[in-house]
Design a protein that fits this description.
mainly alpha, about 60 residues
Length: about 60
């Protein structure tokens, strides 16, 4: 069963941990995300934007 990372099912501390782990994995063999992408993730951490919407917006930023 997939984990539910929605705002209603996570605390701010959990969301921050999720974001930090994802950042660590994403930078293993790549550049650090842009400030704009990090700002979107911060909105998730702060409980303002669901992670699925952050992912969609991030993909849209980098789509050709």
């Amino acid at each position: 069963m997939a984990k539910d990372y929605s705002i209603k099912n996570t605390t701010k501390v959990q969301r921050e941990k999720i974001a930090n782990e994802a950042l660590g994995i994403s930078t293993l063999d790549a550049l650090e995300p842009s400030e704009e992408a990090k700002a979107l993730v911060q909105e998730y951490i702060d409980g303002k934007t669901e992670i699925k919407d952050v992912l969609k917006a991030t993909i849209k930023m980098y789509a050709i």
